[in-house]
């Protein structure tokens, strides 16, 4: 990790600054040591990963190369309509990269995807980033298998710098207000504590920043046949009540918008609280 990348990270336990120390990142405050393996900092403690997070990681680590093809081909079949492209465009417009203004001093804009997976959103981020403005993308994931798949994708990548790291959405290793866009697609319903993840996403977003969360919910505005319901149940077997978690949003967020972007997926967008005067 280069110096600019390192400067963005903090210790996930105490939020102290990190310093490179050979093959690890060491916290200057609590002295915790975090391994870096084959270019991937591991900024979470295995002992804190529990419940559905641990269960779902077995699937992601087991089949990382199948995730993107299944999303592209199987999902439209299960939904009996729509396409991956239409689904993804449905939330990209809420991430609204086109509205990004340059940062003071020519510093790069900072985009964070939580649960980056194999990186299927990276080409869309690159497509929508305003031309001529420096930007850096951060991809955090709990599954090292998915991150390795993403590293393979990045071998031929020519877009904005991408920094990958292993971390847990429940304890993000970033300082308060560190990002200009924050989003997550696909695991909200399996997070062991969705309220905490939404609070973390809001904490690391700069004041007023758009934040976007996408996951499964049967579109309440449509009729569903038995096969739709059966396919949806199969897809969300780990979640007793898959729904848009608007009730878990932290206090002070603004511009809350809940939308169905396909038969099976909601998009929840909101903004981090505005700056205090
Ligand atoms: C359905 S995949 C979506 C991947 C990618 N966002 C996409 O749109 O193709 C969900 C991702 O979230 C990750 N994930 C699940 N629980 C997580 C957690 N607690 N912290 C960070 N990432 C997590 C999984 O490992 C997986 O890569």
Characteristics of this structure?
22% strand; single chain; Rossmann fold; N-terminal domain of TfIIb; eleven-stranded mixed β-sheet; 277 residues; alpha/beta; globular; binds S-adenosylmethionine; 2 domains
Report on this model:
- With 277 residues, the protein is an alpha/beta fold.
- It has two domains: 1-43, N-terminal domain of TfIIb, CATH 2.20.25; 50-271, Rossmann fold (3-Layer(aba) Sandwich), CATH 3.40.50.150.
- It is 29% helix and 22% strand.
- It has helices at residues 3-7, 51-62, 67-79, 84-95, 122-128, 144-154, 194-204, 226-235, and strands at residues 18-21, 24-27, 33-37, 40-43, 109-114, 135-141, 162-167, 181-185, 210-216, 254-260, 265-271.
- The chain has an eleven-stranded mixed beta sheet with strand order 1-2-3-4-7-6-5-8-9-11-10, sandwiched between helices.
- The model has no long low-confidence stretch (mean pLDDT 95).
Helix content: 25-40%
CATH architecture of the largest domain: 3-Layer(aba) Sandwich
Unreliable spans are: none
CATH topology-level fold name of the largest domain: Rossmann fold
How many strand units?
A: 11
What separation lies between the terminal Cα atoms? Answer: 36 Å
CATH homologous superfamily descriptor of the largest domain = Vaccinia Virus protein VP39
Structural class: alpha/beta
Describe the sheet with the most strands.
Answer: 11 strands, mixed
**Rg computed from alpha carbons, rounded to a whole number of angstroms:** 18 Å
Number of helices: 8
Number of structurally distinct domains: 2
Mean pLDDT: 95
């Amino acid at each position: 990790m280069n110096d600019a990348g390192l400067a963005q990270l903090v210790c996930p336990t105490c939020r102290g600054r990190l310093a490179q120390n050979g093959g690890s990142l060491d916290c200057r405050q609590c002295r915790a040591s975090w391994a870096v393996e084959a270019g991937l900092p591991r900024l979470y403690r295995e002992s804190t990963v529990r419940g559905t997070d641990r269960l779902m990681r077995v699937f992601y680590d087991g089949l990382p190369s199948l995730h993107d093809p299944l999303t592209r081909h199987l999902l439209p079949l299960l939904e009996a309509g729509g396409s991956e492209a239409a689904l993804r465009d449905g939330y990209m417009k809420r991430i609204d990269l086109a509205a990004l203004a340059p940062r003071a001093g020519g510093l790069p804009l900072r985009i964070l995807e939580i649960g980056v997976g194999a990186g299927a959103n990276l080409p869309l981020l690159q497509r929508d980033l305003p031309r001529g403005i420096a930007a850096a993308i951060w991809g955090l994931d709990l599954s090292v298998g998915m991150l390795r798949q993403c590293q393979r994708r990045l071998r031929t990548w020519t877009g904005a710098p991408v920094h990958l790291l292993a971390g847990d959405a429940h304890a993000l290793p970033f300082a308060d207000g560190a990002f200009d866009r924050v989003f997550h697609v696909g695991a909200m319903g399996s997070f062991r504590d969705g309220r905490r993840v939404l609070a973390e996403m809001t904490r690391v977003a700069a004041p007023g920043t758009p934040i976007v969360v996408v996951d499964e919910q049967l579109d309440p505005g449509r009729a569903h046949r038995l096969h739709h319901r059966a396919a949806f149940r199969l897809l969300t077997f780990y979640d007793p009540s898959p729904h848009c978690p608007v009730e878990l949003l932290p206090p002070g967020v603004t511009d809350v918008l809940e939308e169905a972007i396909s038969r099976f997926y909601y998009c929840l967008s909101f903004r981090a609280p505005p700056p205090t005067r």
